[in-house]
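Team,

Forwarding the record for the chain on the shared tracking sheet. I've put the sequence and predicted structure together so nobody has to dig through attachments.
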Amino acid sequence: MLIKQFGLAVRQLREGHGWSQERLAEAADLNRSFIGEIERGAATPSLLTVEKLAVALGVGLAGLMARCEPELVD
């Protein structure tokens, strides 16, 4: 579930910038097909890759990961 949530967070941030997967791949120095795999939840990115994505998307590492947490209901 975490991997799918992470992929969704990356996709939402990327689309919020109006970027294609190719544009994000260039900004993060990653392969475009790997970005697609991450967004689909088909690949588990390393911590270094997560950091590259966060920097490219202009968010903090903690902020990016926080988008993957399920909302707590009291």
